[in-house]
């Protein structure tokens, strides 16, 4: 007998709407851009309409499997596009002020620095890690979703965790990140080299996502003294006449740098043990436009 709960289209739409934030959460983490995540969610909706819904016993798991497999197919082509990107590619920052967990039960695997590391993983590793860390999926469900055995699902998550292990063994709290970010901005605006070096880790790396935008560094800048001098060097080009909008992006403190009401740059950091490990700038116009538009809603 058909299950009346979601065989009718209005009920199927209601079920989908309840699960949609979680679908977007996994899709965004997999692909790193809002547009591609929304496309994956829309494709999931189309497949849900065409599915034999009477045979589905767990709609949420069914839909999560669909969106994950769609993302697995898309990730390879996305990786190829990133290879032709001008300069470093960073995931698109998203405003999480109104939705701190981005539709997930847990806010894991959402920070920009973590999403950058996820780019290094093979697609099945990335999917398994996200399902486990961000959504607390049991290994049996991960295995079914990714299409592997349960032991292989455990191996995928284990390998992903090892590959994501960095020197950031103790990420700072949001309060400490906010303090370090504000200190960095103050030192950067004033050009205080000593103050910059005081809060930067010895092996700090600065990444600028500009995709060819003017004044965007096309290679990462590494090392405490080098990054401090780099930041001071463009002080007069970036900061005069700007206003700062302090926001929460990807679950962490960030700042939108605005000039005459328009976004000029997005800035966040990754830090551990009281020092900044990574400085992450976004100057690419399309990404800036989207994060700025989110702030105006």
From TrEMBL:
<dbReference type="InterPro" id="IPR052704">
    <property type="entry name" value="ECF_Sigma-70_Domain"/>
</dbReference>
<keyword id="KW-0238">DNA-binding</keyword>
<comment type="subunit">
    <text>Interacts transiently with the RNA polymerase catalytic core formed by RpoA, RpoB, RpoC and RpoZ (2 alpha, 1 beta, 1 beta' and 1 omega subunit) to form the RNA polymerase holoenzyme that can initiate transcription.</text>
</comment>
<dbReference type="InterPro" id="IPR014303">
    <property type="entry name" value="RNA_pol_sigma-70_ECF"/>
</dbReference>
<dbReference type="InterPro" id="IPR036388">
    <property type="entry name" value="WH-like_DNA-bd_sf"/>
</dbReference>
<dbReference type="InterPro" id="IPR014284">
    <property type="entry name" value="RNA_pol_sigma-70_dom"/>
</dbReference>
<dbReference type="Pfam" id="PF08281">
    <property type="entry name" value="Sigma70_r4_2"/>
</dbReference>
<keyword id="KW-0804">Transcription</keyword>
<protein>
    <submittedName>
        <fullName>RNA polymerase sigma24 factor</fullName>
    </submittedName>
</protein>
<keyword id="KW-0731">Sigma factor</keyword>
<feature type="domain" description="RNA polymerase sigma-70 region 2">
    <location>
        <begin position="16"/>
        <end position="79"/>
    </location>
</feature>
<keyword id="KW-0805">Transcription regulation</keyword>
<dbReference type="GO" id="GO:0006352">
    <property type="term" value="P:DNA-templated transcription initiation"/>
</dbReference>
<dbReference type="GO" id="GO:0016987">
    <property type="term" value="F:sigma factor activity"/>
</dbReference>
<dbReference type="Pfam" id="PF04542">
    <property type="entry name" value="Sigma70_r2"/>
</dbReference>
<dbReference type="InterPro" id="IPR013324">
    <property type="entry name" value="RNA_pol_sigma_r3/r4-like"/>
</dbReference>
<feature type="domain" description="RNA polymerase sigma factor 70 region 4 type 2">
    <location>
        <begin position="115"/>
        <end position="164"/>
    </location>
</feature>
<dbReference type="InterPro" id="IPR032710">
    <property type="entry name" value="NTF2-like_dom_sf"/>
</dbReference>
<dbReference type="InterPro" id="IPR007627">
    <property type="entry name" value="RNA_pol_sigma70_r2"/>
</dbReference>
<dbReference type="InterPro" id="IPR013249">
    <property type="entry name" value="RNA_pol_sigma70_r4_t2"/>
</dbReference>
<comment type="similarity">
    <text>Belongs to the sigma-70 factor family. ECF subfamily.</text>
</comment>
<dbReference type="GO" id="GO:0003677">
    <property type="term" value="F:DNA binding"/>
</dbReference>
<dbReference type="InterPro" id="IPR013325">
    <property type="entry name" value="RNA_pol_sigma_r2"/>
</dbReference>
